Amino acid sequence: NDNNERLDETEFRGHLDASGRFDFDETWRWGFDLDRATDDTYLSRYGFKDDDVLTSSMFVEGFRGRQYMSASTYTFQGLNVDDDPGTTPYVAPLLDYSVTLRPERLPGRMYFDASAVSLYRLDGFDSRRVSTNGSWQLPYVAPAGDIYTLTAGLGLDLYWLNGFSAASSNDLQARLRPTVAMDWRFPFVRSVGSVRQVIEPVAQVILTPYGGNPEEIPNEDSRSLEFDETNLFSLNRFPGHDRVESGPRANLGLKASAYGVSGGYTSLTMGQVFRVRDDDTFAEQSGLDDHRSDYVMALTIAPSKFFDLTNRLRLDRDNFSPRRNEIYFSIGPKKLRF
Predict the structure, then answer these.
(1) Cα 312 from Cα 301, distance rounded (Å)
(2) E-assigned strands of the chain?
(3) What is the C-alpha separation between 63 and 72, in angstroms, rounded?
(4) Euclidean distance between CA atoms 329 and 266, whole angstroms
(5) Strand 295-304 relative to strand 265-275: parallel, antiparallel, unpaired?
(6) Is the Cβ–Cβ distance between 56 and 72 less than 8 Å?
(7) Cβ(89)–Cβ(121) under 8 Å?
(8) How many whole angstroms separate alpha carbon 262 and alpha carbon 34?
(9) Cα(57)–Cα(40) distance, rounded to whole angstroms?
(10) Tens digits of per-residue pLDDT, 145-198?
(11) Considering the entire predicted model, what is its pTM?
């Protein structure tokens, strides 16, 4: 149980695992996920699952044109022996809004995102955050066929913290996040028989100021970060709002692929990140904690719709030794796939 004490032989043990999705109309829907257990060891003891955390939530969300809106709540049940339910936060509410605009008087596209969240703990500090981020993106195709994309953005985060700092019971923190980035790509395409080949070098230069992660701002939503090919060309690799990448940097890489007329394909992505200075915001062994990152690459081979294989690698920046190696494959038709 929660106190690691022996359970009475007659004590009731069980769990709930349920979910639902319901449509109001073509724009709005709501749903829930309920996942709870009576004690820490029940699920693994009887072979249901080995999750470390059970997450329950309820949400309502809407999709209209290029707009998205949502409101949700979350609760968590930690199943590790050292989890403290009093310090586990209740998320109520979490609000998100995003919209994409194409102004008639301006070239390119504009993006706007807003988010607000309140976290409450029985024992420990409480936090509330409001974030806004606006950006303007201008693509340009040069006569030679290479593609340039200019991005300019400005983000604002406001935090109201209760009990986080020992010096003050209530604290207000603010952070401004300007970003300017240039993305360059040059796809080379040719056809050989029934196969179409594409080779695309990619280079990104991103300029943001240093010092974007002061100690006065807690890290609630960006604790888990995995550096791989999926975020190699991201302007900010942290998954949440509480941590941001800072300082000038460049993302360099190569994409290569081959497509057959029957639907099969092979793709390869590889690259590396370079920084003017080290960023100690990233944890050691993350592959991003140096001014030069580890190498990441991914190879996918899918000769038909009945088989695909993906190998993802992260290699040490100095000696190319594997620091992470993942292999996935699936085989079979859609209704009976292994």
Answers:
(1) 12
(2) 15-23, 28-37, 53-64, 67-78, 90-101, 109-120, 126-141, 147-165, 168-185, 188-192, 195-207, 249-260, 265-275, 295-304, 307-315, 322-331
(3) 15
(4) 14
(5) antiparallel
(6) no
(7) yes
(8) 43
(9) 19
(10) 999 999 999 999 999 999 887 656 678 999 999 999 999 999 999 998 889 999
(11) 0.84
Structure tokens, 202? 């990619």
Strands 265-275 and 90-101: unpaired
Q: What is the dihedral of CA 33, 55, 90, 119, to 10 degrees?
A: -100
SS3 6: coil
DSSP 8-class letter at 13: -
Q: Which two tokens stand for residue 186?
A: 């040059």
**Cα(191)–Cα(207) distance, integer angstroms:** 38
- For 323, the token pair is 């620091």
28 token code pair: 């709005």
Tokens 């796809």 correspond to what residue? 187
